[in-house]
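Data card: per-record layout.
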Amino acid sequence: MTAQTPPTPPFRDPHLPFAKRIDDLLARLTLDEKVSFLHQFAPAVERLGIAAFRTGQEALHGVAWMGPATVFPQAVGLGATWNTELVRRVGEAVSKEIRAMRARDDRVGLNVWAPTVNLLRHPLWGRNEEGYSEDPKLTSAIATAYTRGLRGGHPVYWRTAPVLKHWLAHNNETDRATSSSSVRPRVLHEYDLRAFRETVQAGAVAGVMPAYNLVNGRPNHVSPYLREQLRTWTEEDLLVCSDAGAPSNLVDHEHYFDTHEEATAAALLAGVDSFTDHGTDGSQIVARVKGALERGLLTEADIDTAVRRQLSVRFRLGEFDPHYDPHLSTAEFDTPAHRALAQEAAEQAVVLLKNDDDLLPLAPDTRIAVVGLLADECKLDWYSGTLIHRSTPLEGLYERFGTERVEFAEGVDRVRLKLADGTFLHVPPAPEAADEVRGAEGALDPALLAGRTDFTPLTADAAGTEFALVDWGEGVLTLRAPDGRYLSVADDGFVRAAADQPGGWVVQETFRLEPHENGHLLRHLGTGRHVSVAADGVRVAAENASLFELIIVERGTDAVARVAAAADVVLVVAGNDPHINGRETEDRTTLALPPQQERLLRAARTANRRTVLALVSAYPYAVDPAGLPAVLWTAHGGQAAGTALARVLAGDVSPAGRLPQTWYASDADLPDLLDYDILGARQTYLYFEGTPLFPFGHGLSYASFSYADLTTEVTDETLRVTFTVANTGDVTADEVAQLYTRAVEPSSIRPRRELLTHRRLTLTPGERAEVTFEVPLSAFEFWDVAHGRRRLEHGPYDVLVGASSEDVRLRTTLVLDGEQATPRPAAERGLEAADFDEQSNIAIVDRTRTEGDAVTPQGDGSGELVYQDCDLGRGVTEVTARVSGTGTLELALDGGPSLAELKLTDPTPDAYTYTSLTAPLATEGVHDVHLRLRGRLRLAHVDFSG
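The structure for this 946-residue chain is written out next.
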């Protein structure tokens, strides 16, 4: 007899729908096995032949953390291209490299944590480099393109599974694990949710990652919006992955729950499906989930819901159908096409901000002085891969113009550090393996990478070593040895010239010179300790700090002035190091260029008026362009950054990048970093009432363009806009045509102008193209807080076509047939406290731990709320407020005197225990209701009766 082959289980049958296969697999898994799947590192189930799986592969602008890969421009640079098709191709290339790398290293994951769709609301946010734009429409357009590239075009199987970061209203690193973003309903629906919603609805998103912060007093990891909003936007099973360590933060830092069992259960019930906590060790999450099951906080059905969502992603990735997975044999890695795409993306990301007298492009025989701290750098950020190819601005200009026509001065201060005994700090010779690059071997968590100890620690001798000193701002210094290595501190506390670049989760290459007696102490910022010269080498120590005299061998400004004076044109390359003064964990404190770079720019400009400033940075700066004939900006452009910049300067490529966010003129234009009320604070180009340094959408070209023939037509809930764009210049160039709108007679504050859509197009000299946009009328809606829904308001709307948000070339006004504004039905429904029209010194907080909003004065002080056009009917006789805490609520009408006062004298047991207060109030008709709160009072709702 021949043994029968066991039947193929349904979950292995590729002909069945995924849903039925997941049902079958769930039924075969034990409860313990399902619980183990809830951790980021889900173990294998050998009895079923199921492999281990991990969520999370960083791929923001290339494959990150896993060693060498193609490095594309930073995300903000991809946003500056305003080119969705280009970004789709970048996503496609990244996903193919992920597949190719996974084939040789199974640590590389297919669940991709990218892109970041947090809006660039505030330019001082440390992670500005990770977002695409301050505008939700542009952000969603670029994010949708990237996710489509990451997903691939197969109708069934996904090349990678993108997860959007970071849900929700997350734009501060300061106190990011404990701060609460106060987000009024209009900002929530019109701004923060919108970028996520439109990207998810496009159909190429596998999930989202909640952010560390709280929104309206409630941690994002227990946000009701995951259920009420996110999961209503698509029929796909979305996988919600926690951010690293955030589940523990619910108890350890936010103190939102008393026990980890309660916190884990609440997060899972809110919609978190995969818990990223405690590195690769899933035991603590497993123990917490089991504890929650034992306490009745969770059921097996709750576990099944979360596991189903993870399995849905794994099935879509082809894990269970290797013979049908069209992506399994993908081997495209560092191909000529990927290299060319990296260069194309870097070229398209360059924004020409100013070009007086057509100084640019430069003639082929121009003698160029290239100066600045970024002139010979190709910087990487925390979410970059390791460079295979590298191009700095200096290298690009050498290649394009010839080394004989290019002179270089970095502009660093050349210094020696002298000790009290007359000796100097000395760098011993480097070992043979000195050319190793940090992270080249790949790491699941690069934060755990240790500093190198194979270098000999610094010593002191009579000759000493000359260091390149750079002040990156706020006194944060780096010191570089002549061989290019940065002084760094390893776990053993010794100081070595061992780092190829500053970097790491805690940067170990930054120092501060602190005046002391007749010299300086040198503090290492990573450890907070001072440098001490001992017999066994130089180390950082808690005591016996050494006193140094700073000997200036050459000032960087002198070197810059010398080469600038002899050149036809000076190129100053300034900007930031993505690991210093503005990065994940650290917000910036100012828009200003660091003083050392300002001095270099001033020295170059004084020596040669034909000075071009190229800003290479992860964020905007407030620079004074008045004395500069030309200014450019590009984000850190990846492996081809230098070649791209040189080709733009030479005119091989006409620049067509556009600013994805407003560049403000000074810090005085900025609201507080933690003020998320873009309406009240008049933030972003949507509401900013001042004069920007450079506006949203701005970018110049070497060509000129004319716009004409604007027509509009409204049909079938769609606005059709048609116009022509012509290249009136003498070079082939790209133009970015932008369509904006503005409500002319709004019943409440609306954006000054708002991007509806855009298109980047290439035109040869004299070529004219017709551009047609079809915009759904829903794009003109706003969130009507009076009625708790979106509404298209009846009335006139400006339709604006142009080259930026301020450079409008064509305009017309049309009347849209929407709903007329009607009074708020206050007598009938009362007032939800958070549904205000205006506020002063008010924070929105959580009504309960699971749902609802309340309001409270900030800082235990006083605040005011305004609810416009409240219909109190034919008359009311009393007002009732649902409140908690302690304090006073006053009610006034139309800004007049107080008509009712409600006092809560005895504090409620806790913030979530509400009581009702009632006071007489005799009024009728339509009024603006003003509510003034004092004390530690929480207000949830107000009713009128009588």
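Known properties of this structure: Residues 84-104 form the longest helix (21 residues). The two ends are 90 Å apart (CA to CA).

See the next section for split statistics.
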